[in-house]
Amino acid sequence: MEHHEKLTLGGLILGALLIRLMIMFLLRTYQFPTEKSMGAEMGWIARNLADGQGFRVGNYYAWMAPLYPFLMSMIFRLLGSYSSASAIATLVMQSIYSSLTVIPLYFIGKALFNPRVGFITAFLWASNTSSLKYAIRVVWSSSLTALGMALMIILFLRLSRRPVRLRDSCLCGLVIGLAALNDPVVLIFIPFAALWMLWRAKDDFRAGVVHLTVIGIIAIALLMPWMVRNYRIFHRFVPIKSTFGVNLWLGNHGPNINQATAGLGFWDRVEELLPEEEVTFLMSLNEMERDRIFRDKAIDFIFDNPDIYIKYTVQRIYLFWRHSALQLDGISLVPFYLLAWIGIITSKHHWRDTILLLLLFAAFPIPNYLTIAHTHRFRFPIEGLLLVFVSYAVSYFLNLLVPETTPNVTGASLAASRQDIGV
Question: Most buried by CB count within 10 Å: which residue of 1, 298, 352, 398?
C-alpha cells in the first residue's frame, strides 16, 4: 500500500468517526427513553451478563448470538447498566466498527475495479444515512455484521489469487467464526463462496480444497465452545441461535398477516392467536421445544396453504429490498438501485470476480424470504457491498466527463493489481 493510499484511508476512517460522534452529540442519540429502546434483547442479555446472571433473557438462553451482547456487557460492567456513560460508550463502539468498514470496502472496490471505485465506495459508506443510523441511533449488532461481511468478501477475493497463502485462509476462518458468533445469518453465504473459490481454483483444485478445509476447521473451532454450551443446556444440537422456528411461524401462520410488522410483539401475537391453555403449556417448555412446536405449526400452515405461502414469500422479497433506513417510501431507493444495476451491467468484463458479490446478494436474504422481512436492519449488512456497484456506476459516468489518469483495471492488468489486495 502506497503512502498516499494510507493517508487517504486514514482520513476516511477519521472523518467517518468524527461525523458519527458529532451527530451523536448534536442530536443526543445516546439518550434512550427506555431499556427496550437501548438494544432490547441485546441490552437485557448484556445486563444479565454484567450482573453475573448468565447469558439469558427471561427463560431464553440462546435467543441471540453471543458476541455482541458479550461486548456490550463489558461496557455495562465498567460504566453501569443503561447509564448515560454506557449508552455513549456503546454508540462509540458501534461508530468504530462502522468507520473501520471503509477499509475492506475500499480494497474490495480497488480489487474488483480500480482505486477510484474503492475510494468512492469508502466515501459513500462513511457518509450515507444507513451506516450512520446503525452506528449512532440503533443499538444492535448490525454495524459489526456489516464489517464482518465486508472482511469476508475481501478475504475470499485474496484467496482467489495465486499462489494462495495459508495466512489468508486462517484469517478468513477467524473472520467467519467471529462473524457467525455475532450473527449466524452470514453462514448462509459461505457454501456459495466456497463453490466460487473452488471454481476460481480449478487449475489447482486440490489447493482450493486444502484452504477451504483450513477455513472450516478454524471457523468451527471458534463456534465449538458456544455449541457445547448450548448442548449442555438443551441436550441437543443448537448451532448458535434458537429462533428459526419462531420466525418461520411469525411470517407464516394465518391468512391476514401484515408482513411489515410480522416480527413485532411475539408473545402478544401468541397470546392473541392461541388458547390460554396452549400458551401456558408453551411457557412450561424450554425454548428449543417451543421453537420446534412453532416450526411445526408453520410447516403445517405452509403445506396446507401453498398459495398463501407463495404470496407471503413474494411480499417478503419485495419488503426486504424496499425498506429504507429513514423509513421513507420505497420509491426513494430507486436512484440507489438504478445505479447499482448500471454498475452490475457495465462491470460485465469483471464477472469472474463480481459474481462473488452477486452470489452474496442472492444468498444472504434467503432466511428473510422464508421467515420475516419487517425491518431495514435485515438488509443493512450487505448495503456496503451494493455500494461497490453504485460506485462503479458513478466512476463510469465520471470517467466519461473526467477520464482517469490510469485506465480501468481489466484483463492482465487486473491480475497484477490484485497482488496489492490487503486489509
Answer: 298
Give the residue among 230, 135, 216 at the shortest CA–CA distance from 172. Answer: 216
DSSP state of 347: T
What's the CA gap between 109 and 118, in Å, rounded? 4
Query: Tell me: the pLDDT tens digits for 248-302?
Result: 998 898 776 655 444 446 777 787 788 888 888 988 888 889 999 999 999 999 9
Q: How far apart are CA 63 and CA 408, in angstroms?
A: 47
Class of residue 38 by CB neighbours under 10 A (exposed 0-12, middle 13-18, buried 19+): buried
CB 178, CB 67: distance < 8 Å: yes
109-112's contacts with Cβ under 8 Å and 24+ in sequence apart are 109/388, 109/391, 109/392, 110/417, 110/420, 110/421, 111/154, 111/157, 111/353, 111/417, 111/418, 111/421, 112/157, 112/347, 112/350, 112/353, 112/354, 112/357, 112/388, 112/392
What does the pLDDT look like over 99-156, one tens digit per residue? 999 999 999 999 999 999 999 999 999 999 999 999 999 999 999 999 999 999 999 9
Nearest residue to 156 via CA among 314, 353, 303: 353
| Rounded Cα gap, residues 255 and 308, in angstroms | 7
Per-residue pLDDT tens digits for 143-199: 999 999 999 999 999 998 877 788 999 999 999 999 999 999 999 999 999 999 999
